[in-house]
Each structure stands twice: as C-alpha cells, then as structure tokens.
Design goal:
The protein is built from 18 helices and 20 strands. It has helices at about 15-25, 60-70, 105-115, 115-140, 150-155, 160-165, 175, 185-190, 210-215, 225-240, 280-285, 290-295, 335-345, 370, 400-415, 430-435, 455-460, 480-515, and strands at about 5-10, 30, 45, 50-55, 80-85, 85-95, 95-100, 220, 245, 250-255, 260-265, 270, 275-280, 310-320, 325-330, 355, 380-390, 420, 425-430, 470. Strands 6, 7, 14, 15, 16, 17, 18 and 19 form an eight-stranded mixed sheet that branches. A five-stranded parallel sheet has the order 9-2-1-13-20, with helices on one face. It has a three-stranded antiparallel sheet with strand order 10-11-12, with no helix packed on it. The two termini are about 15 Å apart.
Length: about 525
C-alpha cells in the first residue's frame, strides 16, 4: 500500500483532508486543482488588495480538524489561532434583536426576555431534542459510510431502537418547530438551520434540527478568516509529502479495464493513478464533466433536486447604525414567500440577509485586527449573502434583476437600522459565478437539497460504481458544511485504504494459488475489487 499512486481532484476541504491523511499513510498523493490556490468554495476573494472570506464563515466541530492534524503527527493549535464565540449570531426583525448565545442558560434567559417564559421553556425542550437527534445519528450515520434506512436501524442496535423510531424524518422542520415555539420569529431563527445545507425549512425533515446542536456545541472564530483553514490543511498535506498542481483542470477521468486509472488534464497531460479521490460535486461526474466513461460512476442529480445557490457580495464596506457582530442575520418579514419564490426559480422580493463582519469579534469589537490587516478606518471587510435559486447553468440573472436584488438586500438591512455602503470595489458572485467555480452544478452550493425523508440516503457515498474512484466533499455523504466535508474525506480515505488491503490480499492469494512445485505457474485469474 505505501507508494500507491493517488490523484485527488480538487483542493476543497474534502480534497485537502483526504490528501493530508493519505500522504501521512505513505501513499504517493498528487492534488490537481483548476483554481489558482486551495479552498474550493472556502475561498478568499481579493477586494482592494485584501482577502475577504467569500465562502463558508462558520467554523464548528473543531475536534474533527484537530483529529486530522493529530493523525498527521501535528497539532491544530500550532497552525491556527481560534477562539470560542460567546455570541453565536445576532438576529434582527426590523427593530427587534436577539442574540443566540453559546451558554445555554444565558441563551434561555435572552429568549425569555425577548419572547416570554413559555418560549424560553420551548427553547430548553428544543435544545434537548436537537441533542438527542445529533447523538443518535453522530456515530452510526455521520461518521460511518452511507447506508440505507434498514441497515441504519441495525447499526443503532437495540439500545438505539427508540431513537431510530423517532428520528422525525416524515415531519417538516417548520412544522416541528411549531411544537416548541409559538413566536414565528423563533421559528424563523431555528428554521434557518435548514439553509446550512441549502434547503428550505418547509421541505427539510425535522431530523435536521440536529444542526442546532452542532452550533450550540461551539462556534469558533479563526484569526485571519476561514480561508486560513484551507491554507493550513494544504501546508499540512505538503509536509506529509503531497504535491499540489494548481491551474490544472481535469478534462477526463481515465477508466481502463473497468477501473479508475488516472486523469487527463485540460492541457492534454495524463497522470497515472492507482486510485482517485474526486472532490468535485458528484453531479458533475454524472453529467459527464470528467468524460462519458466516468459518468456511470454515480447517479445523476436532477436540477429540481439541487440545493440553494446564493448572491454573495464581498466588500470593503462602510457600516453604520446597527451594532454588527461577526455573524448577523436580518430576517424577511415573509419567510414562506421567500422560500416559495426560491422554489419557483425566482429571487425573493423581501429576502433574508446574512452579513459576516469579518473584522469584528462576537462582541462587535474590531480590535487591533483593523490595523493589522490595513483596513481604512471607515471601512471593514464583509460578506453579504442572499439565497438564490440554483440556475447558474441557465441564462442567468439580467443586470436589472441583479440591481433589484441589491436594492432589496440594502432595504432589508435598513429596516433593522443598518446603513451599508459596499463601495464600488465590491465583488458579486451570482449562481452563474458559482457554476463557473463548480461546473455542472447550476451554482448549487451544497449538493442535492435535503428535502424529504430519503434525501440523506440518496446522497452519493464514498465509493462509486467504478472501482478505484471515490468521492469526498460537502456534496457527498454525510452532508454539506465544512466539518461534514472533512468527515466525508475521512470516510473516503477509510474506504480507499480498506480496498487497497483487499487488493493486496487478493494479489497474494492469486500468487499462492498459481505457483506449482515445479516452478511453473498456471495462467493467473484477474480479480477486480468491488471499490
């Protein structure tokens, strides 16, 4: 197994983690990436000479990454400076504001002051249910290879049978939240967790309430921004011996004798491989982005099953009138209409808006970081997100539609008292831009949407139908998000290493069977691993 040649397609979080873990095991790892640097969607967008996070902004499940560094013989703390956030996010509905707090009792008190004692009790019950769902599925589902519902029940065992029967897959998240909160604003706040995997709270199963427990267990602020995580993982993989080739898009995954055998770059260069880990959206594989032969490796994803895309502004902005913290959400006053518009392929008339104020901490301060990153005193780095339909592979939004979306976004902020001037240098990424970044996806940011009870079981697993070809990333099991992409990479690595050992044992067995006492070998019978 040491020396086995592995090509990793893509340097997103899934590809970076897979490269580091495989290189640490002694495999010969080459990462090929179409972009000019690491991160994939976890990117830094240059604005006015500064890098602004233009992808995921919330860092949870820190232990997942600490374990990756530890398995590579290093410590996360030596390469990233992180601090636990006390304010998870600030939420606004016009003039009304509510901070969601990391401390359970403080959070309960804040909700009680905001909406009354009954809602505080509902929050306590909701937290308990989110934890129950998370704990029931963490080990048997999120941290193990993809399975069907029946085998999930076997994995959970007799001790988990009660939880298995109450995973709430047939109840929508929005309906379930009504059992905890009478205040529609709190249903909005906790229903928004469905968008963490690009889904609607009106169509996603209540099982996804477990996301709230993940965030309640800890949100961490990374000094220098989220993109630092990508560069730290890249450096880790390099120290373990992995090689990175940027500006090297893959034209074709080579299939020979029914197995993955290498890649052909857009330049025409061929790189041979014994195994391939693809960190692209499996939808791109199925749609033929890596050649017709490879397209049979996965099931195709119909456009109607795609997760949400977004309109994302990265800006060196001037913000006044509202006390921003690191994470801020400004809610629509008509949540059902917002998601109905998105489902119909339109931008919402009154969208919810997320603002990440990258230079502020969770208390709203912009400490020495301002001078350290040389931001002009009156401006600060922000990322602004409005949900959008995943239609980036179609005609795209017109300039008039984009301008209207921008005005509606600013109007939504102003209703809460925030005056925001993005400046002329702001960079907008539309669904068409995300489709260019991740081709054949329409700009869907989270793979397939998590709508309906079976969505999680339909998501692509680590192994594909082609032996030697594996999938990893946020569009693959166990799901969307930065830590889920890392867990996906770990599962792909586990499958790859197990298959290598199976292949080695099969080869040894063949050699033993074909050798005769006279030293004459019978013709060998070729055995192909199942992948």
């Amino acid at each position: 197994m040491p020396g086995e040649r592995v090509v990793v397609i893509g340097a997103g979080i899934g590809g970076l983690v897979a490269a580091a873990l495989l290189a640490a095991r002694g495999l010969d790892v080459t990462v090929v990436e179409a972009a000019a640097g690491p991160g994939g969607k976890l990117r830094a967008v240059p604005v006015d000479g500064m890098g602004i996070d233009g992808g995921p902004t919330v860092f949870t499940m820190r232990d997942v990454f600490a374990d990756v560094f530890a398995e590579c013989g290093e410590s996360l703390e030596d390469h990233l400076t992180t601090r636990a956030a006390h304010v998870l996010a600030r939420h606004a509905w016009g003039d009304a504001r509510l901070d969601l707090l990391a401390d359970p009792q403080a959070g309960e008190d804040a909700i009680g002051a905001f909406a009354g004692a009954a809602e505080a009790r509902g929050y306590r019950a909701y937290r308990a249910e989110a934890k129950r769902l998370h704990d029931a599925l963490d080990a048997p589902f999120m941290r193990r290879s993809k399975i069907d519902p029946i085998r999930l029940g076997w994995r959970m065992g007799a001790a988990g049978f009660r939880d298995y029967c109450s995973l709430r897959p047939y109840t929508s998240m929005w309906r379930a939240l009504g059992g905890y909160f009478a205040d529609p604003r709190l249903r909005q706040l906790f229903g928004r967790y469905a968008t963490y995997c690009g889904s609607s709270p009106f169509a996603a199963p209540a099982t996804l309430m477990l996301i709230a427990h993940v965030e309640a267990s800890g949100v961490w602020l990374i000094e220098g921004g989220m993109h630092r995580l990508a560069t730290a993982l890249e450096a880790l993989a390099v120290r373990r011996g992995a090689r990175f080739r940027y500006a090297s898009p893959v034209r074709e995954i080579v299939i020979e004798h029914g197995r993955a055998a290498g890649v052909v770059l857009a330049s025409g260069e061929r790189i041979a491989a014994d195994r391939i880990v693809c960190n692209a959206d499996p939808a791109a594989i199925g749609d033929g982005a890596f050649g017709i032969a490879a397209s049979r490796a996965v099931a195709k994803v119909a456009p109607r099953r795609r997760s949400l895309s977004a309109m994302v502004w990265t800006a060196n902005a001037r913000a006044t009138g509202f006390p921003l913290v690191r994470h801020n959400v400004f809610f629509s006053d008509d949540y059902p209409s917002e998601f109905a518009a998105l489902a119909a392929g339109r931008l919402a008339d009154r969208p919810s808006v997320y603002v990440c104020a990258q230079d502020r901490d969770d208390a709203g301060a912009a400490p020495g970081g301002r001078e350290r990153v040389q931001i002009p005193p009156a401006r600060e780095r922000v990322q602004i997100i409005v949900n959008a339909p995943p239609l980036g592979d179609e005609q795209g939004f017109t300039p008039a539609e984009i301008d209207t979306c921008r005005l509606r976004m600013l109007s939504g902020l102003s209703r809460a008292g925030l005056s925001l001037d993005p400046g002329d240098s702001a960079v907008l990424t539309t669904p068409s831009g995300f489709d260019a970044l991740c081709p054949r996806t329409g700009g869907a940011l989270y793979g397939p949407a998590s709508h309906g009870w079976a969505a999680s079981f339909r998501r692509q697993g680590s192994r594909t139908r082609i032996p030697g070809l594996y999938c990893a990333g946020g569009s693959t099991h166990p799901g969307a998000g930065v830590p889920m992409a890392a867990l996906s990479a770990r599962l792909a690595v586990d499958c790859l290493l197990a298959d290598c050992q199976h292949w080695d044992r099969a080869s040894t067995s063949r050699s033993a069977r074909t050798a005769t006492p006279g030293g004459i070998s019978t013709p060998p019978v070729r055995t192909v691993a199942t992948g």
